[in-house]
Predict the structure.
Amino acid sequence: MADPVKVSAAEFQRQSGRYFDLALTQPVVITRNGRDRTVMISTEEYQRLKRRDREVLAGADFSEAELQEIAKSLPSSGADAFDDELDR
């Protein structure tokens, strides 16, 4: 997807049709008082992003057998690169 286009809320109101069409090919960032407020994207891009969502589960969502398997699992060989994050 192309780089986003920034437009003020007032400009968006004046030429909304133009920006609706533009959002089909690139994100349109709508600003208010100089601050980013809203991003408009195509429905195809939205659906693509939604497919990438991950489900977050709590410990209570797992069976006892699943929790035991998780407890026995070992991190991959490259996981030690993230050890410094434990100190934060």
About this structure: The domain at 1-73 is CATH 3.40.1620.10 (YefM-like fold). Strands lie at 5-8, 28-32, 35-40. The longest strand covers residues 35-40. Residues 56 and 62 are 12 Å apart (CA to CA).
